[in-house]
Amino acid sequence: GAVVSQHPSWVICKSGTSVKIECRSLDFQATTMFWYRQFPKQSLMLMATSNEGSKATYEQGVEKDKFLINHASLTLSTLTVTSAHPEDSSFYICSARTGTSDYEQYFGPGTRLTVT
Amino acid sequence: GQNIDQPTEMTATEGAIVQINCTYQTSGFNGLFWYQQHAGEAPTFLSYNVLDGLEEKGRFSSFLSRSKGYSYLLLKELQMKDSASYLCAVMDSNYQLIWGAGTKLIIKP
C-alpha cells in the first residue's frame, strides 16, 4: 500500500509556457502533500506544504505566484510552473502523508522538467 | 539554524560493511529517517528512529543517539545494487523534514 503517483514522469516545454504536474495518492487519503525540487547532485529542497482544502505554505525564497499549488482533494495535488524558464529545469518530487500521527512520507516517482 | 551533516561520498567493497554517519542540530525532534535514492529516482524509505538505540532491518540497521544528535546507517553484505545516495532527514517540532545533502555510496567489486 501507500503508493503515490506523479504525472507526467518527464516533460519538455518551451520557455514562457506553463506546465502542470499531478501528484496522486492511489490507496490512501493524503491530508498533507509536499512538493520538493532537486537539482543535480543536491539534496531535496522543500518548496511548499499543502493541506487539503487550504492554501499551500511556501518555503522562503519560493515564489507562490510562479509555482501554483492546488490540493483540491484528499488524493490529488497539482503543481503548476507558470512562465517557465530554463533555470526551472529540475526534478520535482511530491510526497504525501496521512496525518501528523503518521510520520512517514510516501514519495512519488518524480517528474523531470526540462525548459528549453 | 537547522543543520544536517553527512559525508558527501563514501566508497566500499562488495560484500563488506559500511557505516554512514549523520549529525544534526534542529529545532525540536520527532524522529530521524534514512532514505535511499538511486540516480534519477525518488527517495525510498529505509528506516525511522525516534528512540535511542539500534533498529535492525535485514542487511540495514540504523542507530540513534538523541543526546549526541547523531545517527548512523549500517549496511552489511554490500551488493552492487546498494550503490546510491543515502539521505538523512530529521523531523522537526513542526513535523517537517529537514534533509541532509546525502551521501553518495560507491560499491566496487
Brief sketch in words of this structure:
Chain A is mostly beta strands and 116 residues long. Chain A is built from no helices and eleven strands. In chain A, 0% of the residues lie in helices and 51% in strands.
Report on this structure.
Chain A has 116 residues and is mostly beta strands. In chain A, 0% of the residues lie in helices and 51% in strands. In chain A, strands 2, 4, 5, 6, 9, 10 and 11 form a seven-stranded mixed beta sheet that branches. Chain A has a four-stranded antiparallel beta sheet with strand order 1-3-8-7, with no helix packed on it. Chain A is globular and about 35 Å long. Chain B is globular, with a radius of gyration of 13 Å. Chain B is mostly beta strands. The A-B interface holds A 34, 42-46, 49, 91, 93, 100, 103-110, 112 and B 30-31, 33, 40-45, 48, 50, 87, 91, 95-97, 99-102.
Encode the helix/strand succession of chain B as letters. Answer: EEEEEEEEEEE
Kindly report the average pLDDT value of chain A: 90
Secondary-structure-derived class of chain B = mainly beta
Rounded to an integer in angstroms, the radius of gyration calculated over CA atoms of chain B is 13 Å
Inertia-based shape of chain B: globular
- The coarse silhouette of chain A is globular
Largest sheet of chain B, if any? 6 strands, mixed
What percent of residues of chain A adopt helix (DSSP H or I)? under 10%
DSSP strand (E) fraction of chain A? Answer: over 45%
Distance between the termini of chain B: 40 Å
Distance between the termini of chain A: 37 Å
Radius of gyration of chain A, in Å, reads 13 Å
Q: From the helix content, strand content and strand pairing of chain A, which structural class follows?
A: mainly beta
- If helices are DSSP runs of H or I spanning 4 or more residues, what is the number of helices of chain A? 0
How much of the polypeptide of chain B forms β-strand, as a percent range?
over 45%
